[in-house]
């Protein structure tokens, strides 16, 4: 029997103190490789030229996805970290914790010939993804959507993001119990 990326995520997913924990995926090379392949497979025939990833798990997954597709990686930094050069900077709508983040993308990283996908671990409100879409489009690039491990988006948020591909829906995760 073939083990899918979805199966590997479910085997390694844990709730820790009420918080979702996907870090065990990164420690297992088989799981990480399968997850990365699963994240990029829906976009293999779209002539993608760049993968964006938001700090921090998006950096790891996005860079690995870019290598898997043989394209470049474009980091999207939060707030204050060192990030030289001309940047597109935007503030997100409130996220699932009602926090707003300032996101930054180096303007020269993308241009009119680029076709971009955002890769991340989880999407809940779409606030960060929507902000990145606006930044990508401000640079003149074409947005193709998002690819995530876990999708928890409401339908009205999904429409604003284009294609959203996920390995599994949040409702498929084990329930967070009192001992978690």
In short:
The chain is α/β, with parallel strands linked by helices and 180 residues long.
Give the helix/strand layout.
Elements: H1 5-12, E1 14-16, E2 19-21, H2 24-27, H3 29-40, E3 50-54, H4 57-69, E4 72-78, E5 87-91, E6 102-106, E7 115-123, H5 127-138, E8 142-151, H6 155-159, E9 163-169
Helix pairs in contact: 1-3, 3-4
Describe this structure in words.
By secondary structure, the chain is of the alpha/beta class. The protein has one domain: 3-Layer(aba) Sandwich (Rossmann fold), CATH 3.40.50. The protein is 30% helix and 30% strand. It is built from six helices and nine strands; from the N terminus they run αββααβαββββαβαβ. A seven-stranded mixed sheet has the order 5-6-4-3-7-8-9. Strands 1-2 form a two-stranded antiparallel ribbon.
List keywords for this structure.
Rossmann fold, single chain, seven-stranded mixed β-sheet, 180 residues, two-stranded antiparallel sheet, alpha/beta, 6 helices
Number of helices: 6
CATH architecture: 3-Layer(aba) Sandwich
H/E topology pattern: HEEHHEHEEEEHEHE
Total of domains: 1
What is the name of the CATH class? Alpha Beta
Q: What spatial order of strands do you see in the largest sheet?
A: 5-6-4-3-7-8-9
Report the sheet with the most strands, covering strand number, pairing sense and barrel closure: 7 strands, mixed
What would you report as the Rg, rounded to the nearest angstrom? Answer: 16 Å
Give the % helix. 25-40%
What structural class is derived from the secondary structure elements? alpha/beta
């Amino acid at each position: 029997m073939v083990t899918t990326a979805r199966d590997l995520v479910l085997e390694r997913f844990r709730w820790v103190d009420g918080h979702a924990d996907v870090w065990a995926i990164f420690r297992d090379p088989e799981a990480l490789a399968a997850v990365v392949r699963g994240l990029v497979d829906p976009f293999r025939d779209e002539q993608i030229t760049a993968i964006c990833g938001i700090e921090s798990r998006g950096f790891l997954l996005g860079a690995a996805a870019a290598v898997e597709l043989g394209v470049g990686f474009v980091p999207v930094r939060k707030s204050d970290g060192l990030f030289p050069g001309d940047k597109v900077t935007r503030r997100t709508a409130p996220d699932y914790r009602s926090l707003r983040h300032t996101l930054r993308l180096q303007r020269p990283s993308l241009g009119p010939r680029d076709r971009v996908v955002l890769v991340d671990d989880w999407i809940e409100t779409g606030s960060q993804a929507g902000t990145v879409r606006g930044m990508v489009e401000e640079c003149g690039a074409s947005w193709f959507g998002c690819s995530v491990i876990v999708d928890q988006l409401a339908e009205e948020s999904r429409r604003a993001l284009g294609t959203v591909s996920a390995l599994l829906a949040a409702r498929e995760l084990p329930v967070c119990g009192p001992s978690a």
